[in-house]
Structure formats: structure tokens, C-alpha cells
Amino acid sequence: MIAELGHYALVLALSVALVQATVPLYGAWRGMAGWVGLARPAAIVQCLLVMIAFGALTYAYVTSDFSVLNVASNSHSAKPMLYKISGVWGNHEGSLLLWLLILVLFGGAVALFGGNLPAPFRARVLAVQAMIAVGFTSFVLFTSNPFVRLLPAPMDGRGLNPLLQDPGLAFHPPFLYLGYVGFSMAFSFAVAALIEGRVDAAWARWVRPWTLAAWCFLTMGIGLGSWWAYYELGWGGWWFWDPVENASFMPWLAGTALLHSAIVVEKRDSLKNWTVLLAILTFSLSLLGTFLVRSGVLTSVHAFATDPARGVFILAFLIAVIAGSLTLYAIRAPAMKGGGLFAPVSREGGLVLNNLLLSTACATVLLGTLYPLFLDAVTGEKITVGPPFFNMTFGPLMVPVFLAMAVGPMLPWKRGDLLGAVQRLKFAVSAAVIGVLITLVLAYDGPWLAIPGIGLGVWMIAASLEEGAYRLRLFRAPIGESLRRLGRSTRSAWGTTFAHAGAGMVIIGIVASSAWQVEKLQVMHPGESQAVGPYQFKFEGAVPLDGPNYAAVRGTFRVSRDGREVAVMQPESRSYQNPPMETTEAAIRTGWGGDLYAVVGDPTGDGAWSTRFYNKPMIHWIWIGSLMMVLGGLISLTDRRFRVGAPARPGGAARAAGAAASMAGK
């Protein structure tokens, strides 16, 4: 009965979405306040209905209702409760329902907290959001229904993919979807602005917090995914330029460009057309990622293996969204003229350079991801575009991005002095030079390209701190004045400082762990030792043990340095029965200098075991830096300007919008 309730709630949600997508839009066009006012309750009702459907599926998983085909295919009575719950989105049908839930939650949030938006504009935004919901609700109901019954019900289920039975993967998909789907709000704001025919500073102020929230969620989701790959897959790596990884990275790059571009619209009334186009493309890249994961065109540990018919549905929806929005853009964009002029050397100029480089980097990743698929579809020839291509093309594009990120905030709006900005960063320049010299002393034998890479990361961190100090006039004014400036500083400015410093930490973690990693693969008997850099790993043997729903072999290694024991590491090799699969659980010891990483593999038959060891200097800086970037975004979201909203639009349009809002409230 619960499953049927969830299915019925989805049918009702589709009906409400159809009404929300049409009636308020027509009402905003015709100036009918009653029809405009329908958008808010419709969005809230649609949200509640999808929440009921998602709750019904979750209940079926928690209670192990194997009469539901989706539960029987992806759960097992012996699974721990955490993985019963995460199993809801650990499959194609359930993850789509989560996608839909997040979509309507964002729409409901605009309905509840978008009181600063003029009623006609809010109605258009919610109508566009409902159009997206119509597509995905139809997809769930007609091709991917999670509530299909299985009669007679089996005694037990097949179980969840063991690779997904991990805390990192329990939380990674929700955060990733919050980012993916969150960019739908930027898309809806952009299309609503095109329908209205107006993009201005108020629009930029409205769209920025929604875009920033999605960016924070996507950053967290990507970080959790890379952390899971690092410790769960046993490969010792954290990023592999897998096509599905790229599918999440491309909207992140475009979304980062969108955030910076919206600042120029808000501050200088420029880059309007470009910002609207970025909003459209960012969400389009999110939809492209959904297509890649669910169409069956990719074979990946991250992908859902589904039949091509579902891929055709998503492809048709993707084409409709992109073609429709770009057609509207082509019609409306020429009428939206930019405002303030600025010199190439200015803060606006730095943000434009940031956008150009990020967009080029995104296009490079897109090309490397899609070209093998395109070639296979056209000629049948199979090629692989792997890390060497991406490292050699993407990496050089990021160097000027990071240089500009440090200099840009030191430039004034409209017109600046590049030499003067660099001179104000003398502390950052000095710190970068010192960082290069220290690295050169410690790693005098190279690799040589890694040494300036460390200097670049130090430059980013130091420049972020110096920009904050410059804002406070620290050491250049009495401490009382600096404290007063601190009290008057905007939180978005400090959020930028944290985010940019976090990016510098990520750079250092990537460069150090890639350049100076030590890796050893060997077969060891109990009692034997292996040197890994300055550390000695002594193998004490492997013993079997039983887990909650798996059997495992646990190896024990005593790690010492200079004759002193520093850690006891116990990696595992696990064997699951439902479904049958072998997994690797690495043992990781994190210290100030980096990570020690140990993996125990299969026995060789003579009492020996295959083993793998890594020494990964400073790799944990990658995830600390990612958290810093998310923290910076969250600090910016608390900025008072986002809470009180944008100032009223000038002129008659503002008065008309206010009148319509007043009518809607009666």
C-alpha cells in the first residue's frame, strides 16, 4: 500500500507540475494576478507530493519490502541500516527520484523564501522550474518507475553494490545532486529573465545566492567522491579523469565562471548576455552528465548500466532544453545592452579573463570526454582519452587562472594599475619565492615543473591573506581602525578570501602528492619488510574475519621510521555474497607530512601475499582545501545583502512589478 501511495503521489506531482508550468506563465504575460499567485502554492504542493513519494520508497527499503522490484534488486535484509537508506539512491530509479526531489525542493525554497522577487518574475521562474520537473517526473513514471511490484516477493534481495556500501558513497550522491540540480535555479532565473526581456543588477543579486549554494554543494560532492575513490578503490589515486568524473567537473567549471560573471553584472551592469548564456550552459552540462551516466554509453564504476531507451528519453529532453533555451536566447539577447564600460586592466577585466580561461578549460574537458564517444558512434573506432591529454591541456590553462585570482581582487573597478596591484602583493610574492626555494632544497632532484607548482599554491594562499589584510589596512593604520573595518567588511569578501586560500591548498596537495609520491608493489611473506621512502613496512601476516555482511582477510603491517614505530596499519580484502564481489579496504595513516597507504591483495599460494604501499606527501591538503572552498562559499551565503535581497528596480518596470506583487497578495 505504501508503494502505491508513493506512485500515486508522483502522478499527482506531474499534474501539479503541468499546471505550474503553464498557468502562472500565462498569468504573468496577461497581467492576471490570481494566476500569477498560483505559482507559489503549486510549487509547495508539488514539493510535498514528491517528498511523500521519496518517503514511501525509503520506507520500503528500511522495512526490506522485497515485493517492490527496486528494493529486491538493490537491497538485502543483512545490510546495515545506513546502507539500506543509501540504497534508495544507489540505483537508477531511486537516484532519479532523489534528483526530482532536490529539483522540487529548490522550487519550493524559491516559493517560500523568494519574497524579495517581484511576483510576475517569481511566477516565471517557478514555471520554468516546473517545466524541468515535468520532464523528469515523466521520465520517472514512464521509464524508471521505482514502485513496480514483484510478485511473488522473494525471501531476500540481491543486495547493494559493495562499492557503494561506504559512508563516503552514502553522502556523495546527495551532495552531487544538490549541486547538479541546484544549477537548475540559475537556468530558471536566466530563462525567466529572457522571457521578461530584462537582466540587470537586481537580477544578478537574486541569482547569485542560488548559484553559490549549488556551487558549494557540487564542490562538496566532488570532494567526497574523490575521497571515496582514494580510500575505497585501492588504486591509491583520487582523480582519474573518468568520463563520469568529468561530467560533474564540467558544470563545476561553468558554475565557477557564472559566479564571477554575475558579480560584474551586479556591480557594473556589464556582461549580461554572457552571464545568461553561462547560466543556460551550466545547467545544460548538468543534464549532459545525467545523460552520460544513465544512457548506457559509458562503462564506469560511477555509471548506471541502463537500457538505451532511457538514454533516448534523456537525450530528447536534453536537446529540447538546450535548443529551446538557446533559441529564446538568440531572440532576446540582442535587445539586452550592456551598461558600464571598463578598461582591460581592472577588476572587471580580471573577472572576464577568469571567465575566458575557465570556459576554455571546460570546453577542453568536454572535448576530451565526448570525442571518443563521437568517434565510436560515427566510425566504430574505439579510442581512450586519458589523464595524459587532460593533464597536458587542462593544467596549463589553470596557471593563469590562479595568477589572476590573486591579482584581480587587488584591482579597483573600472580602471586599475597592474603594476600597483602586484606591488601591493609583495608579501605574497615573497612567500611564493621562499616556498620555491624551500621546495628546491628539499627536492633538489626534481621533478622541476612541480617546484613552481608549489610556489603557485603558496602564492594563492598568501595573496588571499594579504588581500584580506589590505582590506583592513592591517599594519598600515591603528588597530582600532582595522577592527572597525573588520566590523564593516562584507561576509562575501571574506568568503572569497577563504575560497581562494582553499584553492591554493588544493594546488599544493595535487602537486606534492603527484610529484613526490613513492609507490611499491610486491609479494611479501610474514616477517618481511619493505622500505617506502623513509618508512619501513613490516608484514606480520593476514587473518580471516567476519563482517556484518561480508567475509574479509585483514593484513597487519607495523610501520617504523628510523627504528621507531609510528603506526600499525590493517588493510582488508573483503568478499561479499549479495551480490558477489571482491573489494579492497585500504589502511591510511594521515600525518602532518602526508599519508601512508597500505593495501593487502590476494594470497600467492606459498604463504605470501601481494601488497601495495604508498607514501603520499601532503595529499590531505586536497580535501582540507576543498572544505575551505566550501566554507568560503557558505560564509558568502550569510552575507546580509543576500538576506535582504536586491534594491528595487528603477523606473516604471519596478513600479509595475510592485503593483503586480501587491495584486498577487490580495
Question: How does this structure look, described?
Answer:
- This protein is of the alpha+beta class and 666 residues long.
- The chain folds into three domains: 2-396, no CATH class; 403-516, no CATH class; 518-620, no CATH class.
- The chain contains 22 helices and ten strands.
- It has helices at 2-30, 33-37, 39-62, 69-74, 81-86, 92-113, 119-143, 167-196, 201-232, 243-268, 272-294, 308-332, 347-379, 387-407, 418-424, 426-442, 450-472, 479-488, 491-515, 620-637, 640-644, 651-665; strands at 518-524, 529-532, 535-546, 550-561, 564-569, 572-577, 580-585, 587-591, 594-603, 609-617.
- The strands form two sheets. Strands 2, 3, 4, 5, 6 and 7 form a six-stranded antiparallel sheet that branches.
- β6 (572-577) and β7 (580-585) form a beta hairpin.
- α10 (243-268) runs antiparallel to α13 (347-379) and α19 packs antiparallel against α20.
- The longest helix is centred in the middle third of the chain and has 33 residues, at 347-379.
Features:
six-stranded antiparallel sheet; disordered C terminus; four-stranded antiparallel sheet; 22 helices; 10 strands; 666 residues; 3 domains; 12% strand
Write the layout of secondary structure elements.
Elements: H1 2-30, H2 33-37, H3 39-62, H4 69-74, H5 81-86, H6 92-113, H7 119-143, H8 167-196, H9 201-232, H10 243-268, H11 272-294, H12 308-332, H13 347-379, H14 387-407, H15 418-424, H16 426-442, H17 450-472, H18 479-488, H19 491-515, E1 518-524, E2 529-532, E3 535-546, E4 550-561, E5 564-569, E6 572-577, E7 580-585, E8 587-591, E9 594-603, E10 609-617, H20 620-637, H21 640-644, H22 651-665
Antiparallel strand pairs: 1-10, 2-3, 3-4, 4-5, 4-6, 6-7, 8-9, 9-10
Helix pairs in contact: 1-3, 1-7, 3-6, 6-7, 6-8, 7-8, 7-12, 8-9, 8-10, 8-11, 9-10, 9-20, 10-11, 10-13, 11-12, 13-14, 14-17, 16-17, 17-19, 19-20
